[in-house]
Amino acid sequence: MGVAVLCGVFYAGVGRNSPKKRTTAEPVPRQSIPSHEEGVYNTVAMELRGAVVILFALFYSSSLSVVHTFQMKSIYCTISDSCDCDFKPDVRGLEWDLYRNLYGQHLAQEVVSEAVGDFIRKENPDRPLVLSFHGASGTGKTLVSSMVGRHLYGTAMSSPYVHQFIPTLHFPLSDQVQQYKMELRRWVEGNLTRCARSVFIFDEMEKMAPGVIDVLIPFLGPDYVLFQTNYRKAIYIFISTAGEEIINDLTLKTRLAGQEREDIRLQDLEASISQAVFNNRNSGFYQSQIIAEKLITFFVPFLPLNRHHVERCARRELCQRGECHRTDVVEAVGGAVNYTPQDGQHFSSTGCKSIPAKVNLFL
Ligand SMILES: Nc1ncnc2c1ncn2[C@@H]1O[C@H](COP(=O)(O)OP(=O)(O)OP(=O)(O)O)[C@@H](O)[C@H]1O
Ligand SMILES: [Mg+2]
C-alpha cells in the first residue's frame, strides 16, 4: 500500500514536464508550446525518469511507515516543482478571506466559497469548475479571483500553475485572432498536461475578440481526454463587466422597494446575465457556444457598492497605514466619490477603485 502510494506520488510528480515559472503579466509565449518532436523526447525522458524513481521508491519502501512516506514527500517536494507540492488548498482560509475582506457581495461570498470548496473536495470531479464573474468596475471581481489563487497554491498568484490572461496584453491585435486561437488552445493544453489542477483566469473578457474563447470548449465539458491528465480538475474563471446593467437595475429596484440587498438570490440574476453576455458583442461571449452549451458552472454577480462599502474600503486602507482613528478621512473619501444614478445617488460609479489615491488626498 505504502509502496503504491509512494510510487504514485513520485511518478505523478517527476514524470511530468517541469514547468518554467512564469509571471502572470507575460504574454502567451510561443516557445512554451511543445512541438511534436519535443513531445516524443519528453515522453521517453519521462518514462526513464519515472522508472528510476519507482526503483528508488521500491528500494526504500520496505522500511517505510506512513510517517516516513510523509517525510519522503516533503523531501521530494524540496527538490521538485511538481504542482502537487505547491497545491495547498485552504478552503477555510478562502471562506474567511471572503467573509472578512470582501464587502457587500453576499452572492460572490456564498457561490465562490461553496463552489470552490465542493470542487476541491472531489478527488475526481466529473467536469472542470467554470466560474464567470460579472459586475461594474471596482466591485471586487479581480480581488476575488486573486483570493482563489492565493488559497489554492502555496505560492499564491505567483504560482506557475495560476495563469492570468488579459486580452489587451495577451491578444492585442484584432487581425491576429486565428493565431491567438491556436496559441491559446495549445497553451491551455500544455499547462493542463503539466498540472491538472491549473487555474486559468481570463480577466477583462469584454475586451476579448468574439470567438476566441470558444477554442476552450473541449476543455470545459466532461468528454475531453488528455494523455496522463485529468483535465477536469482545472478551474477557469472568466471576468467581465458585461451584464452590469442587469445587476445594477435589480439592486436598485431592491433598494427602492425597501428590501435588503442580501435578499437578492443567485436565481434572480443567473439566466438574465447568461442571456445578456450571449447577446452582447462586447462581452467576449457573443453568441458563444460556451454559453449555448451551458458550460459555465456558475455566473457570479457582483453588486454595485454604496457609500457604506466605499467607506469600509477607505477605513481598511487607513488601518493598513496605521491611521485607523481618522474617521474624518473616511467621511471625506465617502463624500468625494461619484454616485449613480443621478436621481438618488445610491451606488459608487467606480466601486472601491482608486480609494487609496483618495485617502492620500485627504490624509
Ligand atoms: N467588494 C469589495 N470589497 C472590498 N474591497 C473591494 C471591493 N471591491 C473592490 N475592492 C477594492 O477595490 C480595488 C479594485 O477592485 P477590483 O480590481 O477587484 O475591481 P474589479 O471589479 O475587478 O474592477 P474592473 O472591472 O474595473 O477590473 C481593489 O483594490 C479591491 O481591494
Ligand atoms: Mg478587474
UniProtKB/TrEMBL annotation:
InterPro entries: ClpA/B, P-loop_NTPase, TOR1A_C, Torsin, Torsin_1/2
Record key words, sorted: ATP-binding, Endoplasmic reticulum, Glycoprotein, Nucleotide-binding, Signal
Keyword Cell division found: no
Chief localization: endoplasmic reticulum
Domain named Torsin-1A C-terminal: residues: 308-360
Protein residues bound to ATP: 135-142
Superkingdom classification of source: Eukaryota
Signal peptide: none
Localisation per UniProt entry: Endoplasmic reticulum lumen
Gene3D superfamilies linked: P-loop containing nucleotide triphosphate hydrolases
GO-annotated molecular function: ATP binding; ATP hydrolysis activity
Record's GO cellular component terms: endoplasmic reticulum lumen; nuclear envelope
Family: Belongs to the ClpA/ClpB family. Torsin subfamily.
PANTHER family (UniProt xref): TORSIN, TORSIN-2A
Name of the protein in question: Torsin-2A
Origin species: Scleropages formosus
Gene: TOR2A
